[in-house]
User: Which sequence fits this backbone?
């Protein structure tokens, strides 16, 4: 640290902990994730299929419950991608997020909404919009968000 | 101000220590949906939304992002006052007064259970000179209570009476968090947190949400026969550093009250007001609020509680809901005060109803020890 | 028309830079506040109320308004309120200020947006804006999603990196005419942009906005007060906001649907039929070069997929029919809590004809835009009078 920084700045490092409630639908989601199933919620009025599941259909303004949860395919179609190539502190861990990593937006088969996730490809020329992707599960699932560490690109010949 | 902005309905959750099974969005949806049902409206009847919340409290940057679905603001205008819900009410009222919106939904929420309240409050202090001292709302309150009590000779017993009163009132408020009476002895013998204030001189931390619908004169009667009208408003901010303040008196609140009384044509508040709901952050604070609101003379707060005038059957009942000492939903406290005054003036407060309440005062606050003050005067039909 | 018309009567901005180590937070904000007060020839005591905002987690300060409203602005014994809505913080402040005066509650108000981004972590702070369960684990701040939006947009309409790079060249060339702008690269070329480092495909370094430190202060007044202060105010003709779903992936929002919703609403209200003809200048919130192309479509300046053509035809250049971002825009200056207020302030400056080298001749009507939250849009249209166009 240079003299000027020493004189002109105060360092402040606070670890500000929280424990967030996730709601009943997410509890069910993680239960099923352990069985390698991906669950969303379906609005009982307009039939819109939401991923992630949540308790409110914003369009109909009515409630969805655990009974309204349905399973989605682990496969989906890519609508956009990027390769993140910049450093930052990851608030999930407090450490630097390793980079580069692939990052996609896609719609799971059966869902009406999109989702974002890591993709195991860091060469942007290897991605194609419209390409099929699939969730990769950890061998031993634990019922948490990291059970799906990333999605993989499905090669055309596989389909 | 005469019959320009009406509150036509309010809903509150039950306040609890830990609503662990509900997300913030679900918590907010509960009050908004209930409001729709109570008023027989749909989301299309809501012109725009103003929310009141705080990013530190929610552990989320842009905390209002989490509640867009739940307040029904998809494709609509929503804005968020960062801070106490009373200020969110004021912004909502301004949107009606401007003539650009007929209906405004005002919402405020908090889940104190999710964050570390010491760190959240310590972060209010500037990082250069004060934060490292570990100041928070509890230690600041200790300083303020000590200075006030020694200057005016107010006793710990007098302070404890506030707690006994408010906790007793809370028993009749189904929304209240703590619904157990406490005795003077229990308050006085509870563990010392920051001299001269003890554990029971402070509120609990609560989870909950509150919502209300505002409208204009033309539309009010469509929703209810008992709209509640804004008659006076003023806001005033005291100095930031505790060392810059007159810690023995709530100067900012005094100024705000004077202005709000002027607007509402209130000359003698004890006579002209039927009920008050105030944001009392600790027992002694309520005594100081009496003085700043001119319910009694300076230094007479202790004697005023002794007189029983602020009891539920007194001449100016203060916090018939049980106040913040019974339910402390940080950020929603001010809007809860507005909702409580609304139910009083609608005659809908049931077991904690003040008979024939026609005019009421709600006081909301931001920051440490009454720094940011918002005084609102309401009138019934 | 609101109950009371509202005008901008004073403006102050700091010179935006990546680091302002020479000043602390209140000192930095005070620079802009003092400039705005001087501009309106007002004493601190003349100010009725203060609105001030930034994002809590960017600097790690809770209730920053209780500090800065007193130490950096004349808020002592006055109302001080904080509005914070992420990227739209500046426009949400700007719009809240409008309602404070339009409602008749205050005769005037001082509106302040600020950020000292180098002191905290914006990317880290932005990640915590998203859902802790579903979104945070994989989110990469604002740029990751913006890269995805650019990627989808490019694929859908065949927009090229060259077309996007031209936005940076235009805006950074404009910034050279703005003494307050942060990034000063007057001679930037297409090649410079195209050869800059790939940050998040397809975004290169120069496709992205910087992080800036600074503050913007704007004073509004009602008609009676305005008459006393200036004979050259900029009047609000209207404001408009559109929000969207909580989850950013509930709809494919690459083209910012809220910009279309908010702009249609305000154009209809003000009788604007063709924004390119009816508006004289627009200051829009483009976090990336690609987003300016896409946002100009959603704001109705051209048809879908024609943002590149609009730029190629020179319409959004300084000399074009509807210059976009003569200030240099967000690609040149981005102090998040102030950014959208700077858009409103720059629109007002253009209406007042006080833009110096960045002035567009004969501006009657100007639009300012805020972008933020989970893809929200806020707009204000200012003009020489408060009336609708038709």
Assistant:
């Amino acid at each position: 640290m240079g003299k000027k920084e020493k004189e002109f700045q105060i360092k402040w490092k606070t670890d500000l902990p929280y424990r967030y409630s996730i709601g009943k639908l997410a509890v069910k989601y993680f239960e099923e994730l352990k069985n390698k199933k991906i669950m969303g919620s379906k609005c009982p009025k307009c039939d819109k299929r939401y991923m992630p599941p949540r308790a409110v259909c914003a369009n109909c303004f009515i409630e969805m419950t655990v009974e309204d949860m349905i399973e989605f395919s682990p496969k989906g179609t890519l609508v956009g991608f990027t390769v993140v190539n910049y450093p930052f502190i990851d608030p999930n861990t407090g450490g630097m997020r390793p980079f580069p990593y692939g990052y996609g937006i896609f719609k799971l088969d059966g869902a009406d909404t999109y989702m974002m996730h890591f993709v195991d490809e860091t060469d942007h020329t290897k991605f194609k919009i419209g390409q099929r992707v699939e969730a990769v599960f950890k061998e031993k699932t634990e019922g948490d968000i990291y059970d799906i560490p990333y999605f993989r690109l499905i090669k055309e010949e596989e389909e | 101000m005469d019959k320009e902005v009406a509150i036509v309905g309010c809903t509150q959750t039950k306040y609890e220590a830990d609503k662990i099974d509900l997300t913030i969005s679900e918590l907010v949806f509960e009050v908004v949906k209930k409001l729709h049902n109570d008023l027989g409206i749909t989301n299309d009847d809501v012109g725009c939304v103003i929310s009141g919340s705080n990013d530190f409290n929610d552990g989320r940057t842009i905390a209002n992002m989490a509640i867009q679905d739940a307040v029904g603001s998809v494709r609509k205008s929503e804005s968020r006052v960062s801070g106490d819900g009373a200020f969110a009410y004021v912004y909502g009222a301004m949107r009606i007064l401007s003539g650009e919106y007929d209906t405004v939904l005002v919402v405020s929420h908090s889940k104190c259970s999710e964050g570390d309240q010491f760190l959240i409050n310590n972060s209010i202090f500037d990082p250069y000179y004060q934060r490292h001292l570990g100041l928070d709302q509890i230690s600041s309150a200790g300083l303020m209570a000590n200075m006030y009590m020694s200057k005016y000779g107010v006793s710990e017993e007098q302070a404890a009476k506030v707690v006994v009163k408010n906790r007793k009132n809370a028993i009749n408020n189904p929304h209240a968090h703590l619904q157990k009476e406490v005795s003077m002895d229990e308050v006085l013998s509870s563990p010392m947190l920051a001299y001269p204030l003890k554990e029971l001189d402070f509120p609990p931390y609560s989870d909950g949400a509150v919502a209300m619908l505002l409208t204009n004169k033309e539309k009010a009667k469509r929703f209810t026969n008992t709209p509640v009208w804004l008659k006076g408003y003023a806001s005033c901010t005291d100095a930031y550093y505790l060392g810059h303040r007159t810690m023995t008196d709530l100067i900012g609140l005094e100024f705000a009250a004077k202005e709000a009384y002027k607007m509402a044509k209130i000359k003698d508040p004890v006579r002209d007001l039927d009920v008050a709901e105030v944001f009392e952050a600790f027992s002694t604070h309520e005594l100081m609020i009496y003085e700043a609101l001119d319910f009694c003379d300076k230094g007479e707060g202790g004697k005023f509680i002794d007189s029983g005038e602020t009891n539920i059957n007194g001449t100016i009942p203060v916090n018939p809901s049980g106040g913040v000492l019974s339910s402390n939903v940080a950020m929603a406290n001010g809007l809860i005060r507005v909702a409580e005054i609304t139910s009083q003036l609608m005659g809908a407060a049931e077991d904690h109803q003040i008979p024939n309440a026609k005019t009421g005062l709600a006081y909301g606050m931001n920051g440490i020890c009454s720094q940011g003050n918002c005084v609102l005067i309401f009138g019934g039909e | 028309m609101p109950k009371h018309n509202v005008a901008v009567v004073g403006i102050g901005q700091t010179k935006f830079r990546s680091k302002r180590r020479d000043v602390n937070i209140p000192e930095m904000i005070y620079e802009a506040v003092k400039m705005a007060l001087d501009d309106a020839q007002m004493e601190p005591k003349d100010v009725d109320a203060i609105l001030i905002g930034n994002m809590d987690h960017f600097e790690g300060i809770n209730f920053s308004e209780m500090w800065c409203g007193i130490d950096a602005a004349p808020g002592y014994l006055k109302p001080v309120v904080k509005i914070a809505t992420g990227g739209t913080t500046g426009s949400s402040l700007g719009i809240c200020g409008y309602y404070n005066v339009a409602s008749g509650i205050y005769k005037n108000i001082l509106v302040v947006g600020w950020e000292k981004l180098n002191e905290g972590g914006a990317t880290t702070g932005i990640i915590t804006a998203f859902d802790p369960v579903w979104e945070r684990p994989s989110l990469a701040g604002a740029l990751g999603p913006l890269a995805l939006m650019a990627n989808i947009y490019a694929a859908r309409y065949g927009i090229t990196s060259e077309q996007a790079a031209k936005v940076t060249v235009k805006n950074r060339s404009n910034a050279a005419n703005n003494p307050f702008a942060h990034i000063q690269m007057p001679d930037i070329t297409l090649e410079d942009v195209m050869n800059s480092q790939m940050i998040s495909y397809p975004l290169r370094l120069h496709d992205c906005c910087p992080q800036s430190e600074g503050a913007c202060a704007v004073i509004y007044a009602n008609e009676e007060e305005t008459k006393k202060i200036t004979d050259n105010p900029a009047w609000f003709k209207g404001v408009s906001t559109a929000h969207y779903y909580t989850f950013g992936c509930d709809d494919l929002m690459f083209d910012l649907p809220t910009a279309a919703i908010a702009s249609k609403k305000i154009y209809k209200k003000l009788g604007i039929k063709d924004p390119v003809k009816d508006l004289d200048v627009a200051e829009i919130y483009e976090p990336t070069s690609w987003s300016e192309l896409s946002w100009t479509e959603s704001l109705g300046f051209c048809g879908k997929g024609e943002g590149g053509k609009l730029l190629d035809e020179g319409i959004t250049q300084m000399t074009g029919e509807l210059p976009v971002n003569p200030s240099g825009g967000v690609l040149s200056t981005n102090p998040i809590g102030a950014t959208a207020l700077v858009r409103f302030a720059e629109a007002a400056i253009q209406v007042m004809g006080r833009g110096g080298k960045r002035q567009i001749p004969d501006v009657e009507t100007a639009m300012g835009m805020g972008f933020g939250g989970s893809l929200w849009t806020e707009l204000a249209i200012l003009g020489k009078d408060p009336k609708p166009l038709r």
Notes: The first helix of chain B runs from residue 24 to 39.
